[in-house]
C-alpha cells in the first residue's frame, strides 16, 4: 500500500479531512470487503499521481462507526470527495481508476 494514503479515524477525521487545504478523497472500507480490496491498487496509484494536489484517506468502518454513521455509509466501498470541508462527490461500489481520476480532476 502507498505511504501517501493516510488512515483516518473518528478522532482525527475533522482535522485530517474537513480542515484540509487540499481536496480529500475518503475511502470508507473494511478488511472483509472484497470490492474494497479490488479498488485499493487504483487508490494507491492515484495517491502517487495526485501527490501534493489531492489527499487520499481511508476510514475503516468497523473501527470508526461514528464517522461512517455521520456520512450515511450503508454499503462499501464508498468514496466521498471533500473540498473545503464539504462533500463534493460520492461514488458507491467498486469503480475503475479512470472513473476515480475523473472525480479528482473535477475537484481541482
TrEMBL record:
GO terms for cellular component: cytosol. It comes from the Bacteria. The record marks 34-35 as: Contributes to redox potential value. Disulfide bonds join 33-36. Residues 1-108 form the Thioredoxin domain. The record marks 27 as: Deprotonates C-terminal active site Cys. One of its GO terms (biological process) is cell redox homeostasis. The keyword Electron transport applies. The active site is at residues 33, 36. InterPro entries: Thioredoxin (IPR005746), Thioredoxin-like_sf (IPR036249), Thioredoxin_CS (IPR017937), Thioredoxin_domain (IPR013766). GO terms for molecular function: protein-disulfide reductase activity. Keywords: Disulfide bond, Electron transport, Redox-active center, Transport. Belongs to the thioredoxin family. This is Thioredoxin.
Amino acid at each position: 500500500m502507498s505511504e501517501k494514503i493516510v488512515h483516518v479515524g473518528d478522532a482525527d477525521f475533522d482535522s485530517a479531512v474537513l480542515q484540509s487545504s487540499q481536496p480529500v478523497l475518503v475511502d470508507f472500507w473494511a478488511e472483509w470487503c472484497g470490492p474494497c480490496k479490488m479498488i485499493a491498487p487504483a487508490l494507491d496509484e492515484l495517491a502517487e499521481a495526485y501527490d501534493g494536489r489531492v489527499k487520499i484517506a481511508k476510514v475503516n468502518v468497523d473501527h470508526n462507526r461514528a464517522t461512517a454513521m455521520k456520512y450515511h455509509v450503508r454499503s462499501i466501498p464508498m468514496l466521498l470527495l471533500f473540498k473545503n470541508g464539504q462533500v463534493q462527490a460520492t461514488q458507491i461500489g467498486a469503480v475503475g481508476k479512470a472513473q476515480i481520476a475523473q472525480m479528482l480532476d473535477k475537484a481541482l
